Amino acid sequence: MTTSTQTSTHRLAVEIRAGSWRGRTASGGFDIPIQRNAQGNITDESRATVVQALNDLTGNNPIQFTHTTCAVTSGGMLLRTMELPAAADDEALKNLVELQIEKEWPLPPEELAWGFQRIVEPTGSDLNPETPKVKVTVAAIKSSVFRQYKEILSDCRLQADWIVGASVGSMAEDIASSKTAWLVDVQATNTDLVHYEWGVPTTAQTFSTGSNELVRNTESSELSKDFLSIIKTIQCEGSPLMLVVAASEACLKKLQPPLQANFPGIPIQIQLIDTRPGASLATQHLITHTCPHPGRNVITLESHEVKAPPAPIDKAPFIRWGVLLAALIMTIFLARRIEPSLKAGKLESQLTQFREQKKLLPEIDRELSFLEHIQNKSLPYMDIIGLLAAHSTPGFQLESMDMGSDRRVQLRGLLQNAHPEDLRAKLLATDWFDQVILDEQTPDRDGRKLTVRITLLVKEHLKRPKATETMLGIETESKKDEPKKGGK
Q1: Is 71 part of any domain?
Q2: Are residues 68 and 173 in the same domain?
Q3: Which of 66, 410, 414, 475 is placed for a possible disulfide with 10 were both Cys, Cβ 3.0 to 4.6 Å?
Q4: What are the angstrom distances between the C-alpha of 78 and each of 181, 233, 277?
Q5: Dihedral class, residue 157 (left if φ above 0, else alpha if ψ from -120 to 50, else beta)
Q6: Number of structural domains the chain divides into
Q7: Residue 272 to residue 249: CA distance in whole angstroms
Q8: Dist. CA 218–CA 231, nearest whole Å
Q9: What is the mean pLDDT of the segment spanning 424-453?
Q10: How many CA atoms lie within 13 A of 200 on its CB side?
């Protein structure tokens, strides 16, 4: 792994993890545990501790640090790879990513702080040769959590660049130039496993075993289950072209032999992590690299919160003047027309309003007919899902469901220790479907599971039975109390 050894005395590196904050400068650092509430935000006590640690590290003189970079490693971070249509420029691609987040992710884009990066081969072409698509990696975190991180730095009078912690490995030339590479970052109490494609992180996992356990069990030559899971995870993805291991010297002595034995012929690069406070792969890279953001592979985080609208104009003075003017006009009108004329005008106004409302009746009838048509033709989605949950065979795992407007429902899932025909027979027995077609049944390598694809043709509204609680597998309160009453 290629890394600059020149440490800048004017850089501050911060790494934010799920259970700790780390800070590092050329002269010192800190590593403190934190507590979070149910929403993922840092508690007030932990926040005060972090602010105090940052102030101590900067000597209450943040202006001396010309560059501050924060790497958000975990704690609610989402990392996902997408394939999108080719876009004319980066702004158009950003709009496509935003639409895809709104479609697939649990939170809307304005409630997330997110960023993305293209996965580009060294030739410079990021388009799939078969279809004109672009492959990107998207990282996101809740805006409320990200806003609190920025407020903590603001309390210390620090302005920072925000990057995804998994992107730190992209600063290494060996990873950036490899089609596929794995980074094993061994921390004190946990281990991060990151997969890279052409230098862009695509997946990131955290295991609960760290260097403390390896160093403590020096007498045993066997690795823990978590470290064996890391090796198996890499092996299941196929042979990598590059493997980078970041750990302390004591940890590497025990970890390097089994890695070389399990991955013969694959280059394994070593990154030593010192044991000083605040030292980690992320902080060492950010304060020693010649540039904190080299190349195109680093994913930066930006907040996309919708700004509050401007304060409304106070209309009270205008309303008061309008009321006074209307009262003056009404007084003049009453004085000239007296009571009979006033009543005639009021009745005429009501008749005019009635005629205007009557003109809207045809439009209302058309909209009502359209809504009734939608109600009669649309599928009862929740009833169909309830039927599948109540009548599917044991061992069936639903992966995807597609419901169309032509009464067709397509299912895809995994079937274990059961025959597809049993599932088909159970669905037909509900009398809700005209056809249950088994389109595909593909066994896995062990032959224990089947990947099945089924097409259902739902009967018309008047031909299918009414979905009852018994049919949908819903246990009512009265049925729940029956065993208790019998027991008494």
Answers
A1: yes
A2: yes
A3: 66
A4: 20, 19, 28
A5: left
A6: 2
A7: 6
A8: 19
A9: 85
A10: 24
